[in-house]
């Protein structure tokens, strides 16, 4: 039995899969921001009760966490000391001289303090060049004195990031050995271990970020393992990486920077699986939760991997799934600006506590969920009757917005929904239209607790159909964790022109990286049958400022083949991504080895029965507000809609973990995999 756990800003989602019976069980509990482990433990207890099993029956727990992300965004990380090459003490302050545009953004920019302060930074007398040759010998005596001074000042973690250490890590390792001997209790990260790549700022900030969140992650993982033991859970705990892979809890506590986009990764992984199973090659992942919405693009059954991301205003050069996030969710608060008198929605969120007004936990400001309640889109009870909503409280709160704007409660609620939709639409435009992709060629997968509430309206604006609502949309990210593979990358910077380059010189350098990959797979207890290794080269046109990763077959590496087919693949990939290819020489930048460990697929039982008389699935009929008027709208029990069932809008489809809104002039049909597919009636599908 495997358990996926996704901790969100409002709810903690859990999905339990029994491989023997091919059954799944789901549960949602309120998140506990003050200590996420409390909500996780409560969720484990609840789902075990629902499945009728003992906590000790769970064999594996796969957990996505926002602990690292929140620590950086909230500025609540550890006090980090930083050792750099003498003369480069201002690396984190100079950064990349980036400011937000246009001019107004620059004027209002509040530049955050670096994650390691200048007072906690020391310049070490030493220097390597880009070829890894010693230009200035490491002064051990001065370095020891500087380390003693810094490590005695109260720092909680130490980063060592020296110039060109990616080419030769000898000096970093020597400094690490000094710290380990004299201050064994202080955790140390070497940039040559965390990010052995060129570009000194990226390498320094990524390694500092790792140390900034490392003590917090260690404490969190220790707490959660203790709480799970108290509940009788003896399962192994694995953490989801930002690129959708898995790592052990021990590895996550040492390299937490690889978890900065852990939460959204599960939903993207599940969308990839849905694309492959449904045969719909182009899909947009639309994950709307209580606090934020995450969107991404799936093409030909594959997600895009980015080599860097941003956490707040800080870059992190780690492999991540290409996800765009905006501060719009079910808990996003609506208010009227005192300055302009206009309606605003988000990014402030009611969170899990107190939550929206309709949750009845003390919230007083209207949120997007309250607007859905007022319009009749959300029923008075959620979670299968476990959670009752305060309908009158929500209406009163939204009416307050309406009075200020001179609108009825219904029109105020509709305005809140429309603005939230536009914010989310902006994120979808960024990942499609602004990248030359036509959203009308894509379907959209709606998940998260609030995704199916808004997806039909989003699709209508963008023209992307079908809207796909999977069987477990509210806990789809947790399902994605169950379908994730173990994954890690090993990289070596190697900058050379490919003109006149001996290919054997490249392929032999893969051997050391491959050895590291195999060692890591053994540490993660991945069996030989499930293990695989992928090879890539990072290439760019000479004088270009970015690289493109090109896959290389294992056979080509073993046979030490020529560079011609690799370069041909590069030109074609560059043209597909950016619409142009050049005739200038190509430059090799880095070699990468990706280690993967496959996990068993989640094969759920197919939904039972064919679609019969849908009147049997009607739970009740309630008024809902569409197109400026109230309509008597049927509410359907999704569990009673079989394969082939067809429902015409307007309608509300209810299930344990979410509610789907079907707009007028649309219809929904259940496909062979149990997905709800929504199309405009005009499409005539």
What does this structure look like?
It holds the Pfam family Hydant_A_N. It comes from Hoeflea alexandrii. This is Hydantoinase/oxoprolinase family protein. This protein folds into 5 domains: 112 residues, Nucleotidyltransferase, domain 5, CATH 3.30.420.40; 142 residues, Dna Topoisomerase Vi A Subunit, Chain: A, domain 2, CATH 3.40.1360; 87 residues, no CATH class; 108 residues, no CATH class; 70 residues, no CATH class. Helices cover 32% and strands 28% of the residues. The strands form 10 sheets. Strands 13, 14, 15, 20, 25, 26, 33, 36 and 37 form a 9-stranded mixed beta sheet that branches. A hairpin with a 3-residue loop joins strand 1 and strand 2. Helix 5 crosses helix 6 and helix 13 crosses helix 14. The longest helix is centred in the first third of the chain and has 31 residues. The model has no long low-confidence stretch (mean pLDDT 90).
């Amino acid at each position: 039995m495997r358990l996926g756990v996704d901790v969100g800003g409002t709810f903690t989602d859990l999905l339990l899969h029994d491989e023997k019976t091919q059954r799944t069980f789901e549960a949602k509990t309120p998140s506990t921001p003050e200590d996420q482990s409390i909500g996780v433990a409560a969720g484990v207890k609840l789902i075990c009760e629902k499945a009728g099993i003992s906590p000790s029956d769970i064999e594996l727990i796969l957990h996505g966490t926002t602990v690292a992300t929140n620590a950086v965004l909230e500025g609540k990380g550890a006090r980090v000391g930083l050792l750099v090459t003498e003369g480069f003490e201002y690396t984190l302050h100079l950064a990349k001289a980036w400011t937000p545009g246009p001019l107004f953004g620059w004027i209002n920019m509040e530049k955050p303090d670096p994650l390691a302060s200048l007072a906690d930074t020391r310049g070490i007398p030493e220097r390597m060049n880009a070829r890894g040759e010693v230009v200035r010998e490491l002064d051990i005596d001065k370095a020891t004195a500087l380390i003693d001074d810094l490590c005695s000042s109260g720092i909680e973690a130490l980063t060592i990031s020296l110039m060109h250490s990616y080419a030769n890590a000898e000096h970093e390792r020597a400094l690490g050995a000094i710290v380990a001997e004299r201050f064994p209790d202080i955790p140390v990260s070497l940039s040559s271990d965390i990010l052995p790549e060129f570009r000194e700022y990226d390498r320094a900030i990524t390694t500092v970020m790792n140390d900034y969140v490392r003590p917090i992650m260690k404490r969190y993982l220790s707490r959660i393992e203790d709480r799970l033991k108290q509940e009788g859970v003896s399962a192994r705990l694995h953490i989801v990486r930002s690129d959708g892979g898995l790592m052990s809890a021990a590895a996550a506590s040492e390299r937490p920077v690889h978890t900065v986009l852990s939460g959204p990764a599960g939903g993207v992984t599940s969308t990839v699986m849905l694309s492959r199973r449904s045969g719909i090659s182009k899909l947009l992942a639309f994950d709307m939760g209580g606090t934020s919405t995450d969107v991404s693009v799936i093409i030909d059954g594959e997600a895009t991997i980015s080599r860097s991301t941003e956490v707040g205003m800080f870059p992190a050069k780690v492999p991540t799934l290409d996800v765009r996030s905006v501060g719009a969710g079910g808990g996003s608060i609506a208010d009227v600006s005192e300055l302009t008198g206009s309606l605003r929605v988000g990014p402030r969120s009611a969170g899990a506590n107190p939550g929206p007004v309709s949750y009845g936990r003390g919230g007083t400001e209207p949120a997007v969920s309250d607007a859905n309640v007022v319009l009749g889109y959300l029923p008075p009870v959620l979670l299968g009757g476990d959670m009752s909503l305060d309908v009158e409280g929500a209406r009163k709160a939204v009416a307050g917005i309406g009075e200020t704007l001179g609108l009825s409660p219904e029109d105020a609620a509709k305005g809140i929904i429309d603005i939230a939709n536009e914010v989310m639409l902006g994120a979808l435009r960024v990942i499609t239209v602004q990248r030359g992709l036509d959203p009308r060629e894509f379907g959209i997968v709606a998940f998260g607790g609030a995704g199916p509430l808004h997806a039909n309206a989003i699709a209508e604006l963008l023209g992307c159909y079908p809207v796909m609502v999977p069987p477990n949309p509210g806990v789809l990210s947790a399902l994605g964790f169950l379908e994730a593979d173990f994954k890690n990358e090993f990289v070596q910077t190697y900058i050379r022109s490919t003109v006149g380059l001996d290919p054997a010189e490249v392929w032999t350098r893969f051997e050391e990286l491959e050895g590291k990959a195999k060692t890591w797979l053994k540490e993660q207890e991945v069996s030989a049958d499930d293990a695989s290794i992928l090879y890539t080269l990072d290439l760019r046109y000479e004088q270009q400022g970015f690289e493109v990763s090109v896959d290389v077959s294992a056979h080509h590496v073993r046979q030490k083949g020529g560079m011609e087919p690799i370069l041909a693949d590069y030109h074609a990939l560059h043209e597909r991504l950016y619409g142009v290819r050049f005739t200038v020489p190509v430059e090799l930048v880095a070699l990468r080895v990706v280690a993967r460990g496959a996990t068993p697929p989640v094969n759920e039982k197919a939904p039972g029965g064919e679609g019969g008389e849908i009147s049997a699935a009607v739970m009740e009929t309630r008024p809902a507000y569409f197109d400026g008027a109230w309509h008597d709208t049927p509410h359907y029990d999704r569990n009673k809609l079989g394969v082939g069932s067809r429902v015409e809008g307007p309608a509300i489809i209810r299930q344990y973990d979410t509610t789907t809104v079907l707009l007028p002039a649309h219809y929904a049909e259940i496909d062979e995999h149990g997905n709800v597919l929504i199309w405009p009636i005009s499409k005539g599908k």
